[in-house]
Amino acid sequence: MQDTLRRGAAPTLSSVTLILCIHDHQPIGNLDGVFEHAYKFSYLPFLQRIENYPGIKFVLHTTGPLLEWMEANAPDYIERVGALAARGQVEILTGAFYEPILPAIPERDAKGQIELSTDYIERRFGVRPRGMWLAERVWEPGIARVIAESGVEYVALDDYEFRLAGVPDSDLTGHFMTEDHGVPLKLFPISKRLRYLIPFAEPSETLDHLRSIAEQGDDLVAVFGDDGEKFGVWPGTHKHVYEDGWLDRFLQALDDSSDWLNTSTFAEFVDSVPSRGRAYLPSSSYPEMMEWALPTTARREYESFREKLKQEGWEERWGTFVSGGTWKGFLSKYGEANHMLRKMYRVSNKVENAVSGALSNGRPRAGDQVVADHGADTVVAAAREALWKGQCNCAYWHGVFGGIYLPHLRSAIYQHLIRAENILDAGQERGLEVNAEVIDHDLDGNQEVLLESKDINAYIHPSRGGMLFELDLRRAEWNALATMSRYEEVYHNALENSSLGGNNAETVSIHDAMVAKDAGLSELIHPDTYPRVGAIDHILPVGVGLNEMRDPAGSDLVPLGGERYEFEVMRYEGGAGVGLAVRADVPSESGAVPIELTKTVSLDIAGRLRVSWSLKAESTLDAVFASEWTLALLTGHPDYAELVCDGDCMIRADSSHQLESCRHLAVRDRIRREVIRMDFGVEAGVWIHPLETASQSESGFERVYQGITILPHWRISLAAGETATFEMTLESEAL
Fold first, then answer.
1. Which residues does the annotation mark as catalytic?
2. 3-state SS string over 412-438?
3. Which one of 132, 442, 632, 719 is at 20 to 30 Å from 337 when CA atoms are compared?
4. Is 497-734 the same fold as 2-290?
5. Can you name the CATH fold of 2-290?
6. C-alpha span between 396 and 415 (Å, rounded)
7. Which residue in 46, 10, 139, 38 sits closest to 401, CA to CA?
8. Domain 497-734 coded CATH 2.70.98.10
């Protein structure tokens, strides 16, 4: 035999099993046109092609938001998938229905979402799924028990995650057992090599790779598991996959290789091939995700080190031991992600308290799968559905897709979380009161003040200048401060080297796309030094104007938002609030001037938010006092948003303006059908400018409108010991 091999004869070719697992997803809040485009250009043509090859088996996971869209807009697609399942060609996976990051949500919600998906699939497709797709393959050891106790037998994770656990490459051709507290779960490794070959390389390259596995022995498996959108939605892929015939060639190549290559499902494989033994994986995800989750400075160092490994030829041997961060790193990288998640936990606790209340009254647990069509149980079920929609993962992080930078995704998260609160409060017939709570809401080690009424929720950071970081207009289901600040991103370095234009001419992975979709993006990459939210106090030198405030990071202006304010909660008949105070030195032409600033934020039951300031200078002070508010609009286009000064001066929300005098400013949002009215008490100058970011998406670098920044300001000239006072009121009404 050895002599035969030395003469160049081919080694014996055993059979290898290929599992093709396709994951189709569109997030809560995505535009209907995006759903439609993805359906026509990816999901439907893929299904049409694979129906022509009944001998090729595959695995399909479709998330809840997409299934709900298909039920309403493409029911025939669901019927066709059901037919494939009935004839055994497709295995349908369950998942957490609205595609949350499982370790990031309460266990009760994780189990509920998995069970919701499983029951939906059994009801709609006639099969009860045994396996599960894990959102973004974000794994923490403790979720093995959560998944298994939800009735799931197996889940697929990236082979990189197995390598981090020390599993050798030679063993990544089977499945493994893991457990948590004695509850077992089977794990399959997804091949990164296949993820990058399919569909970008020619089918022959994929066959060569599979052939190399077949040469290693019997009962071996290779798993492809990736987004269905790469078959038609990613830039250039529709032409490549369908018009140029890649998918037809690929399926035919698989069919022609049936003498040594099997296509199978997870279920068939686990039923016929025993596991390779136990494996305990660390907290992890696919390698790109772990890199994206790193803080920007650390990510640059990480990339430099990986490049060093490549240059020295060490990556193949030592790269296994180089790991990025974990998904929860996004919660420290982006304050906006953490605030959304903490809001989600707060609402989840409210829903659970409502469930507990129903149980204590002798009613059956509501909202799990089948809800009795009566009273409080129906209320709780509706609130829970809204909560679960608010757990959809895409708006909570950012990688190669727009993610948290996309305002319509962030807005949808808050919309559903606020809706859940509204449903619960409507069921409780909430009284005429404003609740004030002191709590470390965002888990930063400092206490926040939460004011909540039937009309408005206002959340305040005393430790960060008394700024408002959430302002829920409950009728409109709108957090008017759900903005996105400008952060330093690693890919900003590539903007200077990117081309301006449309999609890449050649079909490449989205990880390699370097196209600038808009001009002037390099002007937007100065990172903000403070969150762009509401009630941010500024004491500015005379002469500072709109240009400096458009890019405060570039002008080195530091607001009092960086100061820690002392605070005291105030409760009074018909309302509640917080009193804040700080002593600080502010710059002036004659040197630093000590000042004392007191600030009150109050909310009354009529839905009026009042902010008042009293500024006392200990020596002569000639300056400008300004309060900065950035309101989260979905677009600044004049068809959908505009500002009105003193009832008649129309102002565009997509450009900058400098108003010399304005007392009443209205912000009209025609999408949400809501108008925010700001009354400055006395005449004020107002600087207005859009807040935009430069972020990466699957099709390149793009300009994203985040909202409109409004800075009412007043000139102050104080002698030693003198005081200046200011006040503004904010309220909203239906448009």
1. 136, 227
2. HHHHHHHHHHHHHHHHHCCCCCCEEEE
3. 132
4. no
5. 7-stranded beta/alpha barrel (3.20.110)
6. 14
7. 38
8. yes
